[in-house]
Amino acid sequence: MTPVIPGKVREIRLARVPEGLPGRGDFTVAEVPPPVPDAGQVLVRNRHFLVFAALRTLIGGEVEDAPLPPLRPGDPLFGPAVGEVVTAPEGGALRPGDTVLHMAGWREYAVLPPEQCTRLDGALPDPAAHLGQGAVAYGALTRAAEVRAGDTVLVTGAAGAVGSSAGSVARLLGAGRVVGSTGSAWKADRLTAELGYDAVVLRGAGSFAARLAEAAPQGVDVVLDTVGGEQLAAAVQVARHGARFALVGALRGQLSPQGAGGTAPVELDGYRLILKGISLRGYTGADHPGVDAEWSARFGSRLRSGEIPFPSTRIAGLAQAPQAFEDLLAGHHFGTVVVDL
Ligand SMILES: NC(=O)c1ccc[n+]([C@@H]2O[C@H](COP(=O)([O-])OP(=O)(O)OC[C@H]3O[C@@H](n4cnc5c(N)ncnc54)[C@H](OP(=O)(O)O)[C@@H]3O)[C@@H](O)[C@H]2O)c1
Predict the structure, then answer these.
(1) Across residues 46-54, what is the average pLDDT?
(2) pTM over 0.90
(3) Looking at the chain, which terminus has fewer C-beta neighbours within 10 angstroms, N or C?
(4) CA distances from 160 to 97, 146, 152, 157, 215 (A)
(5) Nearest CA to ligand 1 atom 30
(6) Which residues contact ligand 1 via a Cβ below 6 A?
């Protein structure tokens, strides 16, 4: 049967490069003719896409060394998405109806080469859960920080997409005590009640370092850092001898209204790093292409059963996406933020 495709489809575009943090007014919802695949391409109807903090850096344009290209005014936004194949090249691996993961989010329909679509075999009960960042947490905790049984683990930015998975992943990998940080008391409550965190430190007024020392009185062995700034500096102060730090994100610099979100300077106590034999290792998923498959093979059944949770905020409708992004940057959301189409 020939698929019915509307005469106009919608996508979110960058309207202008903002001064400071982006807001919903910096984006437009454009109505465009549907994309037409050529003979070698796949047409995908998107069902879910990810709203993510790193978009701020792509919009700011400071992407040197980053795994993704910058966005310019007029460009459609992009990022991880889950969709359904509408048409695919004859004789290829993909078929109409297949569910695929790809990078052309923020639009209703996408045209892609087949090699840029990952078919979701053994898909999770909620296909949007494929937008979760558990594999990043798993990769960081196994490749960069090498968590061991009984370790005390600190996760900064614990209520975000990466951090909300990291508590349960750390537990599955044998962590003893898991401490997180967040910006809101209501998020701290959810992290301890639902997501395996033993204690949560609030950022904001007063000394973060003093509050962290109270939450981790015996110190920390592993740090999964998504924030940087004073939180990373404080983690060095409470680190135990031989502590391993996985540096995954830089929200403090990325979400600062000053600058373009492409740098994250921080002053660390170098003397403490030496005396405690601390290792700091940067981690990006792009440098570890085998991690996603290992994560699924090792924990796929627990993801499917819900034993590993998928904490998410769901937003209905493409037109709400710019507001969802503004709210994400302001710290109003919890877990992975997904727009459902
Ligand atoms: N290395 C990799 O492969 C990889 C993969 C994915 C993501 N990342 C990076 O990891 C980081 C976290 O990503 P994510 O998707 O999980 O983002 P996210 O945590 O969902 O980002 C939004 C959250 O950042 C927090 N925030 C806002 N302003 C802040 C500030 N000034 N200081 C500290 N926190 C602030 C807020 O949470 P609270 O209110 O709870 O503080 C907000 O809800 C990002 O830097 C991202 O680029 C890296």
Answers:
(1) 98
(2) yes
(3) N
(4) 31, 21, 20, 6, 20
(5) 252
(6) 52-54, 133, 136, 157, 159-163, 182-184, 187, 203, 226-227, 248-252, 254-255, 283-285, 328, 331, 333
